[in-house]
Amino acid sequence: MNKERDYIQDIAEIRSMMEKSSKFLSLSGWAGIMAGIYALTGAYIAYRFFDFYPDEISYSTPALTNVVSLALIILVVALLTAIFFSWRNANINGENIWNATSRRLLTQMAVPLFTGGILILILISKGLIGLIAPFTLLFYGLALYNAGNTTIFEVRLMGFVQIALGLFSSVFLEYSLIFWAVGFGLVHIIYGIYMHFRYER
Question: Could you list the residue ranges that cross the membrane (predicted)?
Answer without folding.
Answer: 24-47, 67-85, 105-125, 131-148, 155-172, 178-197
